[in-house]
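Lecture notes, unit on protein representations.

Consider one protein chain, 338 amino acids long.
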Amino acid sequence: MVHRLPLLLLLAAPSFAQATVPEPIEAPPPVTADRLDEILAGDAPHDVPELTALQNHVQALLQKVLPATVSLPGASGVLVQRDDGYYVLCAAHVTLTADKRITFRLPDGRQLRGTSLGANHESDVSLIRVDSEGEFPAVDIGESGALQRGEWVLMLGHPSGLKPGRNAPARLGRVLQVPTRGYVVTDCTMQAGDSGGPLFDMQGRVVGINSRINENLAVNMHAPVDALVDHWAELQQGKVTEARQRGQRGARADFGVALQYGDGCPVFDAVPKGSAQEAAGLRSGDRLLEIAGEEVQSRRSVLTALRSRQPGDEVVVLIARDGKGIELELPLVRGTGR
């Protein structure tokens, strides 16, 4: 009697040996500290691990800064500890004047009392002294002048007041502009009630105070914290600095080069030889597409985009030349009505 089973198994064995075995998927290398620094400075994440590293960093940052983001009636603020006590950094258009009794709340529900000190309405920064006694969460003050265009920032605020069980909504965005004077501009979406709230760098330091919402919701203005630090002594003493009157003849800023308006985008007229505008790369016939990320098409839209600027500021514009889009950083001068 012939036993065929072993032969069949033997003949079948090579087919198992030749079966394709999936190659192991190589895990991507971990994100290094240097690479994370590059991402935080504005480089886009290239893959899922890098995006996860950014997300983890922001989540850790929130745990650090959320407890110090306070809710004021209809506005927001942030707690810092400096000199002899605790203070709330806020916007001048929120506190308005000095010696006002102000009640505000911490995210943990505690209600604190404070007194408004000085307010600088030119820079839209103000200071509130915390009168309640105790230990409170506080954050560090950074340098708004050290910000770079494109780097990531985190904005907090209480747009609809402090609500039980809900933290201050966090908005992650990027810096669009850091002028030598005027506002820090970001694409962090701002809402009513965010005024006075903090803008943080990726180290959790306050670099700006939420100031105003542009008509374009992706372009928002933050008072630079450097202005608050520079005027700290005056604010602490209760000095109130009034803003310059709007509509003052010749006080608004413009490009110093006439714009021709018609169908489509405004077009720059003759650029003076040897001017700062020429040195910045502007040429006659350049078509103006955007101002600080905001699309412009009419005289009104240009005036709106420049409304918060001051002579001496620099603003990033997108122009079209020979069918190509070009970014320029143009200096602004005192308006001449052109």
